[in-house]
Amino acid sequence: MKKSLGAHTLVYPTPVFIIGSYDHNDKPNAMTVAWGGICCSKPPCVTISLRKATYTYANIMLKKAYTVNIPSEKFMKEADYFGIASGRNEDKFQKTGLTPVRSSLVDAPYIEEFPFVLECRCIHTFEIGLHTQFIGEILDIKIDPALLDQADKPDIHKINPFIYDPGSGNYFSIGPQLARSFSIGQEISREE
Amino acid sequence: MKKSLGAHTLVYPTPVFIIGSYDHNDKPNAMTVAWGGICCSKPPCVTISLRKATYTYANIMLKKAYTVNIPSEKFMKEADYFGIASGRNEDKFQKTGLTPVRSSLVDAPYIEEFPFVLECRCIHTFEIGLHTQFIGEILDIKIDPALLDQADKPDIHKINPFIYDPGSGNYFSIGPQLARSFSIGQEISREE
């Protein structure tokens, strides 16, 4: 018998996405969001949700572009800071010493030091309630080449991302590989 | 200097959500999705994306309701199977021996054996391309009471969810706790 917890924003896993955007003066900003994920395969799209009060909300509304930067554990402190401070009051790149790089594909900056970056053109917005949902078409992914495996594919443990737990308010690492998808379940398919 | 990988649906982390729904005969179905996540705090909402061809797509369009069931590692084989087979051809609950329970809040079943469940009323759909996005208002969360910590909060390691890596096609576990959010970044805030 399950216990009711009420209506909460709690699911596993929850990401730590750092959103790169430019303001009206082309000042780069970075903001941490935990609400988001891939939302379409063709065209490849990623969704993020933002409160209207954020500096990044106005930036994306203006520029119709953003980047999703995945921090490695090494940059956990910076990632957390990006979610605490507002670009309205602070230059977060100056404060962290991280480097904004202008995307050649969209009107948004990405973070040079972060291992993995999605460059997105905003193709849709939807007002849900406290949060507005943005859908961004992924035009390119950029990765630090040292983080590719021998087959030239991104290696999750080399990228070393981490997750957010909205329940406890803590960050957690990615653990060991468990099994292959579209594979271990076939045992059940074959049973008669 | 970063390397370009092209436009792909790859981000970290990516979830393993099992979607519970009823068909037109009230037959329960379960389907695995990897595209989704929380998308609004008030009202609390979770988004999932589905291809039109899926059995679950038609079910949710009909019933305007779904559940998001989080599998523990123990049910990795069943979770993988739910993503391989179609409810159009198989009774996935019968095949796995798992128990569908009718939600008292929405017209959808949840999986009794799974540790953590969101009961959702579908409040919006949006056609992106290959995938259609559904936004569900979370009306309640149900949890196995043994998985709460001493403060009666969900314990991520007791729930023991796992993640999907679309790059390698493998499942990974959740690793150790790293740090507290809205906390370790304050060090940077305080620096002058």
Features:
Pnp Oxidase, Chain A, alpha+beta, two-stranded antiparallel sheet, 5 helices, homodimer, 17% helix, 192 residues
Outline the structure in words.
Two copies of one chain form a homodimer. Chain A is of the alpha+beta class. Chain A has one domain (17-190): Roll (Pnp Oxidase, Chain A), CATH 2.30.110. Chain A is built from five helices and twelve strands. In chain A, the strands form three sheets. Chain A has a seven-stranded antiparallel sheet with strand order 3-2-6-9-10-5-4. The model of chain A has no long low-confidence stretch (mean pLDDT 97). At the A-B interface, strand 1, strand 4, strand 5, helix 2 and strand 9 of A face strand 1, strand 4, strand 5, helix 2 and strand 9 of B. Strand 10 of chain A pairs antiparallel with strand 1 of chain B, so a sheet runs across the interface.
Structural class of chain A: alpha+beta
Care to count the β-strands of chain A? 12
Q: What is the straight-line distance between the termini of chain A?
A: 30 Å
Q: How many domains comprise the coordinates of chain A? A: 1
CATH class of chain A: Mainly Beta
Largest sheet of chain A: 7 strands, antiparallel
Q: What is the structure about, briefly put?
A:
2 copies of one chain form a homodimer. By secondary structure, the first copy, chain A, is of the alpha+beta class.
